[in-house]
């Protein structure tokens, strides 16, 4: 690791930047300095403000206050093209390509090499692309259209794009999230070369070992605030995790005890090629099961496939024991499934319609006769649910758009609860909601579970996952890699599984039972990983029992996942997260 | 598009290009070429069948008529494709043709203005209409469907108001202008030659200039185009300007061809043009398709009309057949897109 070149003028810097979206303060007084020839890591949990920061550097957002400095001079970027023109390349978490155009055209759009009379030199475009692909060590045909490329390959195209204009600053937002081990290694060698040539690199990854491997400095954000900027040399992974996580669990999570009943939703070997694979789990009545993982791990996609919005390529969904017709949300609704989607403005609500209309949408055939909707019934249903969910509104005839985010979310919940589901799938139920309403939504979910509803909750909010879930399923790169019971779930164990760092989940049960606990909260004891893949360790969940090798711990177990993705096994200190879980749980309750 | 037309030689590629990439591309290639080949095939079959049933269909005059009938529609289809490729639509073309033809007729009747002046006037009238639609769509951010539908009626209204039932007669039009419509070189009428030149020129620009590629980019993914720094609004405005200018040009040619012009020439043509473009494989959701395909679509539609007339089939059937073709084309597009995405996704899945 070369010495960080922290002297001199930073190539690109942020100075006291603030950025809000409506009531949400995404960045508060954040500063950051990127130096030539240095790889800088940006660490923080989901929602800490990393993406906003990147978009500010990329010219997508303009800071509300504070400055962006290029070579020490304040600059204002007019759109992404402005940032690109000064040599800032951004590789986003989700690549944006032109699906109909060839890979070569995607890379050189707007910057194609030209011959006389301004004509595009198609041959040069193609050969340069082939050269870039060769430099990246991948075999992608420059003439292939981008449509249908895997995320990894799309990422490669984006990286090739950055290479093609010799970027001075390379910003990468979780570029490795969808890459295999060998692809990651190849990417790193490319980045290393660029850095050696004097480029400044800003790197975001949830895989801590990658941060330590690639970067010299790290800046940690938490809840939109700057926490620390320091050299990585001398830091341990534990130090970093502590800086990222360090916050209190407020009384936000009023978890009620509930009696767990029979299996309500059972998913077996669900696969959608290139998105997620071999996902099996059960959700029982009275239980809140969290589906955790990083953005892009395939959680939302699993939910969509379960509900029939997307068609799965293989696998089966059973609700209350009978198989669900695939690819049909109507069938899913009839079977008692309800899906509260992630993006309530786009997919959950009709913003221009009134509250009562929105709530009525899911039950139009029950609100009248012969296809005519009775206003009185519609209003009655809306009023009933508004009271039950403590909705704050002026009039039920108001547009949903005028409500606050939290109350909009309640309307979406009401809309789906009114269908009287047996299984409720909620995707990021509290994203963008203020703390007070958040607690109300949690209370609601908890009491619904206590009444016997089976709840599957997708959440990127770790405290929420830990506070609400009876069981935590963790997805990593399209696979279910861990199933952690409430007693053993900690921020560290979930995060470790989500980042593919560890085989912690399975060992957790065993180690937890052994009662080994380390007062520091982060055990060094390598034994604590326990026997991997032992179903008995999580034997109290049926999922592994009845499907044998197909269960979460079997074929898709952490060992398997790490094996296929080619990541080195975690070191002892992060691997053994079990006892920490026990400790944390013990102190909390 | 470059994927379909250029046959890339593969010397400087890694020798062991992966099987998947190869087959993925040939799949895409095949799909697009299939569209153009199948239209051409249908065209040939249609002509052969009609010719067998009625040999006069393909005598000298018959061929000339086929080409003359197709020329103006082909021209309009070329203009329309450029707009549709950007994920927009221009419904005002029929009205623009009408207005331009009438304006040119009014301008030349009883005078001895030259051919070039008339054509220039037509282009100017069309470009003026196009720039209004384009500005509203690109800078005003009003949906293209609404803007151009509004323009359709406005231009039509202006045209009616101006004409007041008046009619331009061939007798008033200078002979050189009429000669443009009826003359020929080496037995091929001027009009189809002009249309072909416009077609080839547009295809070349769309393929070889940055601006042309950026039009495809905008239609394929506006969001990605924005991130790539494509000047979206300018390009969309330019597309409408082009479509308008081409329509105005077609209006001038209309005058040259028919001599007699009333206010509602080309009434309803916008839908025929859009049908031709879509049948020809330009996806209505933008991004893909070639002007060559669109021109073939236009040729197919006019040939169906001529064939039905020769075969003495009721001309009402023409519309029904055009409609059926349109639906078939859109369905095929949709199915192909879904299938192809799935196939490509599976191929690249590990």
Automatic annotation (TrEMBL), chain B:
<feature type="transmembrane region" description="Helical">
    <location>
        <begin position="316"/>
        <end position="336"/>
    </location>
</feature>
<keyword id="KW-0813">Transport</keyword>
<feature type="transmembrane region" description="Helical">
    <location>
        <begin position="236"/>
        <end position="256"/>
    </location>
</feature>
<feature type="region of interest" description="Disordered">
    <location>
        <begin position="1"/>
        <end position="20"/>
    </location>
</feature>
<feature type="transmembrane region" description="Helical">
    <location>
        <begin position="37"/>
        <end position="54"/>
    </location>
</feature>
<keyword id="KW-0472">Membrane</keyword>
<keyword id="KW-0997">Cell inner membrane</keyword>
<feature type="transmembrane region" description="Helical">
    <location>
        <begin position="66"/>
        <end position="85"/>
    </location>
</feature>
<dbReference type="InterPro" id="IPR001851">
    <property type="entry name" value="ABC_transp_permease"/>
</dbReference>
<feature type="transmembrane region" description="Helical">
    <location>
        <begin position="144"/>
        <end position="163"/>
    </location>
</feature>
<feature type="transmembrane region" description="Helical">
    <location>
        <begin position="183"/>
        <end position="206"/>
    </location>
</feature>
<feature type="compositionally biased region" description="Basic and acidic residues">
    <location>
        <begin position="1"/>
        <end position="12"/>
    </location>
</feature>
<feature type="transmembrane region" description="Helical">
    <location>
        <begin position="292"/>
        <end position="310"/>
    </location>
</feature>
<keyword id="KW-1003">Cell membrane</keyword>
<comment type="function">
    <text>Part of the ABC transporter complex LsrABCD involved in autoinducer 2 (AI-2) import. Probably responsible for the translocation of the substrate across the membrane.</text>
</comment>
<keyword id="KW-1133">Transmembrane helix</keyword>
<feature type="transmembrane region" description="Helical">
    <location>
        <begin position="268"/>
        <end position="285"/>
    </location>
</feature>
<dbReference type="GO" id="GO:0005886">
    <property type="term" value="C:plasma membrane"/>
</dbReference>
<protein>
    <recommendedName>
        <fullName>Autoinducer 2 import system permease protein LsrC</fullName>
    </recommendedName>
</protein>
<feature type="transmembrane region" description="Helical">
    <location>
        <begin position="115"/>
        <end position="137"/>
    </location>
</feature>
<dbReference type="GO" id="GO:0022857">
    <property type="term" value="F:transmembrane transporter activity"/>
</dbReference>
<comment type="subunit">
    <text>The complex is composed of two ATP-binding proteins (LsrA), two transmembrane proteins (LsrC and LsrD) and a solute-binding protein (LsrB).</text>
</comment>
<dbReference type="Pfam" id="PF02653">
    <property type="entry name" value="BPD_transp_2"/>
</dbReference>
<keyword id="KW-0812">Transmembrane</keyword>
């Amino acid at each position: 690791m070369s010495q960080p070149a922290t002297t001199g003028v930073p190539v690109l810097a942020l100075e006291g930047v603030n950025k809000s979206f409506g009531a949400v303060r995404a960045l508060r007084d954040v500063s950051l300095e990127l130096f030539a020839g240095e790889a800088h890591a940006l660490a923080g949990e989901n929602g800490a403000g990393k993406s906003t920061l990147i978009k500010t550097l990329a010219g997508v957002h303009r800071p509300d206050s504070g400055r962006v400095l290029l070579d020490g001079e304040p600059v204002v970027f007019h759109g992404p093209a402005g940032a690109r023109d000064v040599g800032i390349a951004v590789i986003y978490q989700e690549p944006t390509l032109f699906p109909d155009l060839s890979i070569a055209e995607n890379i050189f759009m707007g910057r194609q090499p030209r011959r006389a009379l301004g004509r595009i030199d198609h041959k040069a475009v193609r050969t340069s692309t082939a050269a870039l692909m060769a430099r990246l060590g991948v075999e992608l045909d420059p003439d292939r259209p981008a449509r249908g490329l895997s995320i990894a390959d799309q990422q490669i195209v984006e990286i090739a794009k950055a290479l093609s204009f010799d970027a001075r600053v390379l910003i990468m937002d979780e570029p490795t999230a969808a890459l295999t081990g060998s692809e990651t290694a190849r990417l790193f060698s490319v980045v290393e070369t660029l850095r050696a040539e004097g480029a400044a690199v800003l790197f975001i990854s949830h895989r801590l070992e990658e941060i330590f491997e690639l970067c010299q400095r790290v800046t940690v954000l938490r809840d939109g605030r700057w926490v620390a900027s320091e050299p990585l040399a001398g830091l341990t992974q534990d130090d970093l995790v502590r800086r990222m996580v360090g916050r209190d669990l407020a009384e936000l999570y009023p978890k009620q005890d509930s009696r767990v009943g029979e299996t309500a939703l059972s998913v077996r070997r669900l696969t959608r090629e290139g998105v997620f694979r071999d996902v099996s789990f059960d959700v029982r009545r009275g239980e809140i099961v969290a589906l955790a993982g990083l953005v892009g791990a395939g959680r939302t996609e699993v939910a969509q496939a379960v509900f029939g919005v997307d068609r799965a390529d293989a696998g089966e969904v059973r609700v209350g024991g009978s198989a669900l017709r695939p690819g049909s949300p109507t069938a899913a609704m009839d079977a008692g499934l309800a899906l509260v989607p992630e993006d309530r403005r786009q997919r959950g609500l009709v913003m221009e319609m009134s509250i009562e209309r929105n709530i009525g949408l899911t039950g139009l055939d029950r609100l009248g006769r012969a296809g005519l909707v009775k206003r009185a019934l519609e209003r009655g249903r809306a009023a009933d649910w508004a009271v039950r969910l403590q909705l704050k509104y002026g009039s039920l005839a108001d547009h949903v758009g005028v409500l606050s985010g939290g109350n909009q979310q309640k309307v979406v919940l009401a809309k789906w609860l009114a269908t009287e589901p047996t299984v409720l799938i909620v995707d990021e139920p509290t994203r963008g909601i203020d703390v007070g309403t958040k607690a109300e939504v949690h209370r609601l979910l908890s009491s619904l579970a206590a009444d016997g509803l089976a709840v599957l909750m997708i959440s990127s909010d770790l405290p929420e996952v830990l506070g609400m879930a009876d069981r935590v399923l963790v997805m990593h790169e399209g696979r279910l890699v861990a199933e952690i019971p409430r007693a053993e779930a900690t921020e560290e164990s979930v995060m470790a599984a989500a980042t593919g760092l560890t085989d912690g989940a399975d060992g957790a049960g065993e180690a937890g039972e052994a009662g080994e606990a380390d007062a520091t909260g982060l055990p060094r004891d390598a034994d604590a990983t326990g026997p991997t893949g032992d179903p008995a360790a999580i034997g109290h969940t049926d999922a592994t029992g009845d499907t044998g090798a197909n269960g979460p711990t079997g074929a898709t177990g952490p060992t398997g996942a790490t094996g296929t993705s080619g990541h080195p096994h975690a070191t002892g200190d992060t691997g053994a997260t079990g006892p920490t879980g026990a400790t944390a749980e013990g102190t909390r309750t | 598009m470059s994927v379909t037309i250029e046959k890339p030689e593969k010397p400087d590629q890694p020798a062991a290009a992966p099987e998947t990439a190869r087959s993925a591309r040939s799949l895409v290639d095949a799909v697009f070429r299939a569209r153009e080949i199948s239209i051409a095939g249908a065209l040939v079959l249609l002509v052969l069948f009609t010719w067998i049933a009625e040999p006069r269909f393909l005598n000298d005059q018959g061929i000339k008529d086929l080409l003359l009938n197709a020329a103006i529609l082909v021209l309009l289809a070329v203009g329309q494709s450029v707009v549709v490729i950007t994920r927009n639509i221009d419904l005002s073309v029929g009205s623009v043709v009408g207005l331009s033809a009438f304006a040119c007729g009014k301008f030349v009747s009883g005078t001895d203005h030259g051919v070039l002046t008339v054509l220039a006037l037509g282009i100017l009238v069309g470009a003026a209409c196009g720039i209004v639609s384009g500005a509203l769509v690109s800078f005003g951010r009003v949906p293209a469907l609404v803007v151009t539908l509004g323009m359709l009626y406005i231009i039509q209204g202006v045209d009616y108001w101006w004409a007041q039932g008046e009619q331009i007669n061939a007798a008033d039009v200078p002979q050189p202008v009429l000669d443009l419509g009826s003359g020929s070189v080496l037995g091929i009428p001027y009009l189809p030659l002009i249309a072909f030149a416009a077609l080839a020129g547009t295809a070349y620009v769309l393929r070889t200039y940055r601006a042309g590629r950026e039009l495809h980019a905008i239609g394929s993914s506006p969001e990605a185009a924005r991130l790539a720094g494509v000047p979206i609004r300018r390009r969309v405005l330019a597309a409408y300007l082009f479509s308008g200018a081409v329509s105005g040009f077609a209006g001038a040619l209309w005058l040259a061809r028919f001599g007699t012009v009333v206010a509602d020439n080309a009434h309803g043509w916008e839908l025929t043009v859009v049908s031709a473009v879509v049948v020809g494989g330009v996806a209505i959701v933008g991004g893909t398709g070639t002007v060559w395909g669109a021109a073939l679509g236009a040729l197919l539609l006019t040939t169906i009309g001529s064939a039905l007339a020769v075969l003495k089939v009721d001309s009402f059937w023409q519309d029904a057949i055009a409609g059926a073709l349109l639906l078939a084309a859109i369905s095929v597009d949709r199915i192909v897109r879904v299938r192809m995405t799935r196939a490509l996704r599976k191929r690249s899945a590990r």
